[in-house]
Amino acid sequence: MLVKDHNNIPHVTSPIIQFVSQSQINKKTIQQEQSESFDQSFPSSSLVLLNNLIIKNEVCKQISNTPNFLISLIKLTKFKFNNDTNKEEDKQSLKIRNESIECLRSIHRWGDEQVQVELVTNGYPRALVIDINTAGGNEYQQDKGIGQGLENIFEFIIKILKGREINPFFKCTALSPQPFLFKSCQEQFEDEGGNEEITAQLVNKCEGYYYNVKDDANRAKEKILHFYVDNSNPRPRWYNY
Fold first, then answer.
1. Which of 51, 167, 222, 235 is paired with 9 by a 20 to 30 Å CA distance?
2. Residue 234 falls within a domain, yes or no?
3. Which of 94, 122, 104 has the alpha carbon at shortest distance from 50?
């Protein structure tokens, strides 16, 4: 089975690394020039396959130890094809960005403490902010993407600060608290304008069946602003969520 065979990981990660290395990179986005032979579905299909493989810590370790892969995956969170007028390419770009952030979420979910260090070192907190900035699609999809992005920030920060226990109803790898990582997280949020972006979403009143953008923004901002809680002081309500 693919899931049991770690030898499949290099066959999936290598093409993604090559794809990113051949793309044009600038400060805001990476762009891919099109050729007639290029299959637009290739990056997203590879990412879907990879996400299906990330179901245990051993795979996460192998992925995080693959040279240039995590940074390549993070770069894909700001990917777009080099055509501002092609709607199909816009859809493919959005799909690649979404699948990239999903892979990173899975790596965070299944990875141990060392994997979390690699994620932070390679810029995962920065990618979480970029994910909010590049949410696309129609108005509903955009608001849903922003809501999920804010929830990702909230979840990542609380797991870094409080750790993570094994949950029989939500499969994951247990983590001990790693508050020493938060300073780097906060710096990356600030560099990408994360605090301003979250504040902007506090006025967004869009509500969906599974999400509330304003509530997600409030929770994420509380985590960033109140990352340190003195044990002698009463803990705010959000701390136990």
1. 167
2. no
3. 104
Please tell me whether residues 89 and 21 are part of one structural domain.
yes
Domain count for the chain, please give it.
2
Q: Which residue has the tokens 């003195």?
A: 230
Residues 9 and 103 occupy one common structural domain: yes
Question: What pLDDT sits at residue 68?
Answer: 92
Token code pair at residue 160: 């870094």
Report the residue count for the chain: 241
Model-level pTM?
0.77
15, 19, 21, 23, 58 from 55: Cα distances, Å: 21, 24, 27, 29, 9
- Cα→Cα distances 101→120, 128, 172, 202, 239, Å: 14, 8, 17, 23, 25
> Closest Cα to residue 73, out of 135, 12, 148?
12
* E strand or H helix at 12: helix 8-21
For CA atoms 75, 72, 41, 63, the dihedral sign is negative
The answer on 115 and 142 residing in a single domain is: no
Bridge partners of 207? 212
Q: 48-57, pLDDT tens digit by residue?
A: 888 888 877 7
Each residue of 155-169: b (16+ CB within 10 Å) or e?
Answer: bbbbbbbbebeeeee
pLDDT at 199: 66
